[in-house]
Amino acid sequence: MIVRPMQNWFRMLFIWNGSVLLSIIPQLIVVAILSTIAAFTHGRVFGEKIPLSPAPFTLFGLTLAIFLAFRNNASYARYTEARLLWGGILVSSRILVSQSLSYLPQQIRVADHLIAFAYVLKHQLRGTDPGADLARCLGAERAAELRGKQYLGAVILSDIRTLLAPGPDGVRWMMDAQVNELQKCLGGCERIASTPIPFAYSVLLHRTVYAYCALLPFALVDSTEFFTPLLCLFISYTLIALEAIANEVAEPFSLAPNALALDAMTRTIERSVLELRGRPIPSEIEPVKPYQYT
To answer: Quick one: which H or E segment has residue 45?
Structure first.
């Protein structure tokens, strides 16, 4: 996840880290080559003039822009929901620790289980091994018992309920409501991770964007002549970059530069929970690159 301070308008023109420009340079090179060929041949291929005009491309470009907006809105909705779910995990974890300290001070293991839950969920969403974090939070013996479980997050939340069971009925009901909130956040994250945007949308948009960019130089060359490569590069950069951004944002739990910083979020949950417990807190996650958190 890229977290940058606000820049002035001039510096924004030259920022690379956080943009998708690096990932789409090969596509832009192809567009530049096609545009240059179209400009030097005046829109001819093997001596035959390609009969394209700007008017249909203007109408089609408007339709494509609407389709891209729909795709980006759908992707950003997934990203926003994922961020809200992780915010809910932080809030519920703080509340549950605070309640356990106030009403069930003997249950000191609740905090450790909440930290383990956050790390287990992060590993589940990214498909990585949670073994080391489980052993650190719950001990090697319990980590060995949980090895091989398919739904570790649900198991740990069930363990938390077991820890809260000895409390009075009113207190148990109140704290169980926060466990339910964690269950909802867990289910919401699993739903986003297991339900991508329908593949047909991605294929259609991908093919349409590249077909449009490939044919655009031959439609503009008669009116723009040797400015064709510059104009086509600018238009192609906008369309291809929008598609690339939509693809990154649609998978908020990945390791892409614009995905959620799950490492930093889980560390924040751990720090907050440990501080409430009055225990030493680890340092914050440092960016792996300037302004980029994982």
So the answer is: strand 44-45
